[in-house]
Prior knowledge:
Layout: E1 2-5, E2 15-19, E3 24-30, H1 45-52, H2 57-65, E4 74-80, E5 87-92, E6 100-101, H3 120-133, H4 139-150, H5 160-165, H6 171-177, E7 183-184, E8 187-188, E9 191-197, E10 202-211, E11 214-226
Helix pairs in contact: 3-4
Protein name: Transport and Golgi organization protein 2 homolog isoform X3
GO cellular component, one term: Golgi apparatus
InterPro entries: TANGO2
Amino acid sequence: MPTGLDLEEGKEGGSWLGISRRGKLAALTNYLDARQNPDAQGRGSLVSKYLMDNLDSFAYLRKVSSEAHSYNGFNLLTADFRTNEDTLCYYGNKGSSEPIHLKAAGIYGLSNSLLETPWRKLQHGKRLFTGVVNKTLSPDGLVQELLHILNNEELNTPDPAQERQGEGFSKAILRALSAVCVRSPGYGTRTNTVILIDREGNVSFTERNMLNCDLTQWSTNSFHFKLQE
């Protein structure tokens, strides 16, 4: 089940987040960089290909790393929830040449830099997320609290680390990008997605979408299914 299809001409069909009934999950973020190659391959295909591929999460990222030069900057998380021990792996083509297994339990943060780069917005988001998951909530209550975090418009500026990486962008754009939920003229957050998976393999997939590019109009849909054995 992918969220958000890439509709850019010549790069249609990709996504930035998806999960399959086989227990494969992938999530993609772009890497903040003003220098973009207009002829690069569409990064959204990296998610859809993993969901359909038979490679495990780490092997798939090894394959992707060998083709990394074909894409503009990206971060890709791949997970597999079918095995006795869940696996989560990460690769960013602006960082190490090799993917890594994320074996340590805990909370990881990923924005538009490398994994765990301590941008102020990322640290702010992690604090909010930690506060929510430490509460005793029903699944529906947890979803609502997480959607509330994803719509946090608080600006986290100044942030020298984000500004250094974003050299070439205007101050107004970098200021807007410092929020968890981005709001700026002609650009911003238009989809929120929360995926919950319990110990029995039950998946809850909730997505909130802006309608007609209108901040006052939103539609929320939820889907539920069980992972295949």
